[in-house]
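Hey L., structure's done. Input below.
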Amino acid sequence: MESSVPARVLVVAHRTAATPALIAAVRERAERSPAEFTLLVPSAAHGLDRLAEPDQVDSDEAQDTLDLALPLLEEAAGGRVDGIIGAPQPVDAVNDAVNQHGFDEIIISTLSPRMSRWLKMDVPNRLKILGIPITTVSARGASAPAQTGA
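Output:
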């Protein structure tokens, strides 16, 4: 018997937050069973700031991303999508969000494998320790659930 309690889904994206691939993935997940979505956009540190003061970042870029993506994701989800700005490092941002808010699933949206810094950093595999299902969606449209061991 399926639970009537909606799953809490964390959507993690930055430059790909408003791409057709992510919008399709959210729509597909929303159609599968009841879900509540939250978009997490890690703040961005640029240039030397990334090395010198990684915790001192301007969140304007992340807020602009939220402002652009939330209406599109809300349409795909068929309801409200919350938005949060996280730490600059995506693994830290996800860990913080999961620990503070609790989520049942994660959808990570990245650039294409050739261009994605997050994939080069192995973000999806590094988050397996959380023990919750992770789906990775690339900007070119491919999606594949990551194995979680849970």
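Residues 7-146 form a domain with the Rossmann fold fold (CATH 3.40.50.620). The longest strand covers residues 35-42.

-- N.
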